[in-house]
Amino acid sequence: MGKEKRDSVKKFIVCLLKVLAVFTGWLALSHVADMYFEHTAVSRLFADLIVFVGVVLVSYVFWLIDHKSFKVVNIEEHFKNIFKGILIGAVWVGVPLVILFITGKARIVSVNHVDYFILWIISCFFSSVMQGLLIKGYIYQLIEHTYGFAAAVVVSTVLFTVMHHGVFEAGPMTILNIASSSVAFSFMLRYSETIILPIAAHFVWNLLGGMVLGAESMAHGYPALLNIAFNESVLFDNAHKLEGSVLVLLINIVFILTLAILIHKKEHKTTAKAKV
């Protein structure tokens, strides 16, 4: 085996071990936190906070080990990207729901009283940020730095789908929606050059779609203010809700294609300026 090939294999093994260390670290910590979780707002908050802090610390340690200046936040643009993320998240949830209500495929069946709802919102925020940091933070940027954008998209999408392992029991449409959502998050990160945009979009999807409207299946016993019933339709996998809709897949594809065009224009403009 030549030196170049040995170096290539070594690079791959080191990259793989780092990814596995960070991801399995999250998996173990998440499992431990859930062992002590009771279905109350306070216990959920502490469980999500513990996992969030753990992911932040592990990611920071590996960044220090690598001596890399991986970009997590672009301070100058963060407010603009928060707004964009909120808008994308609202469109993501709102467009398919409006279509389903208009066509009679969805209806509100009840309104729920949720104690300490603000604590559940904070928990949802920690969970959404944690997932963003874990999948689109260190792991994504490590792979992108080592093997490029396409490899980072593929690996982070596989890991993001594994994180939402319940989708494998739901059906192919739900799996496609979760996977394509991750691809869209990767393109948001590429376009904005900050992890804030995909995190904000993901948080709004969870908050608005899951906790407010009850249109998304939330894990870990998260409550919802509304119960929305969906009629049996070819649009859905099994008993899953909005994440099993072909409408969400279509919106994901539109987001990905739009972002790809915007990225191409942005990078072409940057290249043109560099040549001047």
Structural topology:
Elements: H1 3-35, H2 41-66, H3 78-102, E1 106-111, H4 117-147, H5 149-163, H6 172-192, H7 196-212, E2 226-230, H8 246-275
Antiparallel strand pairs: 1-2
Average of per-residue pLDDT values: 86
Give the assembly state of these chains. single chain
Count of all domains = 1
Q: In total, how many beta strands?
A: 2
Unreliable residue stretches: none
Write up what this structure looks like:
The structure is a single chain. The protein has 276 residues and is mainly α. It has one domain. It is 72% helix and 4% strand. It contains eight helices and two strands. A two-stranded antiparallel ribbon has the order 1-2. Helix 2 (41-66) runs parallel beside helix 4 (117-147) and helix 4 (117-147) packs antiparallel against helix 5. The longest helix has 33 residues, at 3-35. It starts with a helix and ends with a helix. The mean pLDDT is 86.
Features:
4% strand, 276 residues, two-stranded antiparallel ribbon, mainly alpha
Compact description:
This protein is 72% helix and 4% strand.
